[in-house]
Amino acid sequence: MSIHLFYVLGSVGLDIIANLALEKSQGFAHKGWGILSIVFIMGAFALLALAVQGINLFMAYAIWGALSIAGTAIATRLVFGHKLNLVSCLGLALLIGSVLLMRLGH
């Protein structure tokens, strides 16, 4: 496994944290959480920029997007109690499956 994949995974982690902070900010009503979300998303894109030095952009972005969306859905369920219905779960499965198919075809 290359270091570039670890950059993508680190970027995913920072993106999920940024999304949780954004939710906590309640639409920037709590400025500290809002600023924290901006800092984390900047870090996420910095790591993504490092990742594309060794991974094709479309693949890095597809992995990042799918894992960030799925991770955010799971994290908001755990932290804030947001509900995931069957259709949402199927959508997440399709999203992750599509990235896996892209990877196999690459």
UniProtKB/TrEMBL annotation:
Compartmental location: Cell inner membrane; Cell membrane
Main location per the UniProt record: membrane
InterPro entries: EmrE-like (IPR037185), Small_drug/metabolite_transptr (IPR000390), Small_multidrug_res (IPR045324)
Coiled coil segments of this chain: none
Chain segments annotated as transmembrane: 6-22, 34-52, 58-79, 86-105
Keyword presence, Nucleotidyltransferase: no
Top-level taxon of origin: Bacteria
UniProt topology in membrane: Multi-pass membrane protein
GO terms under biological process: glycine betaine transport; spermidine transmembrane transport
Keywords: Cell inner membrane, Cell membrane, Membrane, Transmembrane, Transmembrane helix
A GO molecular-function descriptor: antiporter activity
Cellular component, GO annotation: plasma membrane
Family listed: Belongs to the drug/metabolite transporter (DMT) superfamily. Small multidrug resistance (SMR) (TC 2.A.7.1) family.
PANTHER family recorded: SMR FAMILY PROTON-DEPENDENT DRUG EFFLUX TRANSPORTER SUGE, SPERMIDINE EXPORT PROTEIN MDTI
Binding partners and assembly: Forms a complex with MdtJ.
Name the UniProt record assigns to this protein: Spermidine export protein MdtI
